Amino acid sequence: MKAKERQSKLRAIVDAKAKARCLAGEISGNQRRFLRVGLEKGKELEPAGRLAGPIP
After folding, report:
1. What is the dihedral of CA 10, 14, 17, 18, to 10 degrees?
2. Domain residue limits, the chain
3. φ, ψ for residue 47 (rounded to 5)?
4. Which positions ≥6 away from 4 have C-beta within 8 Å?
5. Which residues contact 53 (CB under 8 A, 6 or more apart)?
6. What is the pLDDT of residue 39?
């Protein structure tokens, strides 16, 4: 891949990520708390069996 093509693709990726962040908005307090508890507790609180979802 030529340097100019690579720069063009990298620029498109950066622009797409920036647009996605703008459209996503801010993380709410509830979302932040949910993520924090997930990091603290780990996999021990993950559902198992039927609660985990359908079996493919």
Report:
1. -160
2. 7-37
3. -70, 155
4. none
5. 47
6. 87
